[in-house]
Design a protein that fits this description.
alpha+beta, N_methyl_site, Type II secretion system protein
């Protein structure tokens, strides 16, 4: 009776090919170990940015005005004022993120804080004459890889005062 076995040549071929396959798979494994946590962080950061943008959208939709100032607070590239029927909302940007504050009470009340590590957010009011009628918000995430900075998930939004309510009323 004859038994079946591997020949010496077959064993040498496997031993020769196996290290190349291991090198290819180790590179793939190293890439996935490095990229998965980085991409998870980027997605979480983008989720916080989108939550902030949703709040701004809702406030601008309910707004009656986008004032230049409210008391001692002035609207500029770091401060966005939105006048609602029940009071004024102030979005203020600092190095760590954005704070949403209600200014209409005796003491300003913070209602929301969004902290960002790699997000860049800019906003400005669209004005016609002296009156502002919309807000443009631009966002992107900065990703630093090998000393180079790249923009990821860049978006631009324009919200008109009462824009969503007007769109719902249209036939």
């Amino acid at each position: 009776m004859r038994t079946r076995a591997f020949t010496l040549v077959e064993m040498l071929v496997v031993i020769t090919v196996l290290p190349f396959a291991a090198i290819a798979f180790s590179g793939l494994f190293a890439t996935s170990v490095r990229d998965v946590p980085r991409m998870t962080r980027i997605v979480q950061e983008n989720t916080r940015v989108l939550d902030l943008v949703r709040h701004i959208r809702d406030d601008v939709d309910a707004a009656v005005d986008l004032p230049d100032a409210s008391g001692e607070v002035r609207s500029d590239d770091r401060t966005l004022l939105i006048a609602l029927p029940e009071g004024v909302i102030c979005y203020r940007m600092d190095e760590a993120g954005v704070t949403r504050t209600r200014l209409d009470q005796a003491e300003a009340q913070t209602e929301g804080v969004w902290r960002f590590r790699d997000a860049v957010i800019t906003w400005w009011r669209w004005q016609q004459g002296e009156e502002a009628h919309a807000v443009e918000v631009r966002t992107f995430l900065q990703e630093r890889i090998a000393g180079k900075t790249r923009e990821k998930l860049a978006n631009s939004y324009v919200y008109f005062i009462g824009g969503l309510a007007k769109a719902e009323e249209a036939p």
